[in-house]
Predict the 3D structure of the following.
Amino acid sequence: QVQLVESGGGSVQAGGSLRLSCVASGYTARRCMAWFRQAPGKEREGVAGIDGGAGSTSYADSVKGRFTISRDNAKNTVFLQMDSLKPEDTAMYYCAAAVPFLSCTFERYKYNSWGQGTQVTVSS
């Protein structure tokens, strides 16, 4: 496991942008890294993932075209650029690292390291 620390959350108006960062304490270049979110009263859901090889990305339908995940392996950091934010994007956002070499999908059992979360609030 690695320790993950998120930052960059905050409050914005609808249509605005935020950029989340997640710094890992160890080597994560071979791991799928993903962002999940959880709104009050709802289950945690996968938002975006980036694999540890070619850097292929995947997104939940609800954020496609608005969110972009990227990574800097030299700095063990993953980013989530969130544009055109909507009130329904309001949630706690969590960074997660999957067990090495597993495919980069959003099944939670694949992820053995989680950050503490950063709050994103979007007002209308």
Notes: The longest strand covers residues 91-98. The mean pLDDT is 95. The radius of gyration is 13 Å.
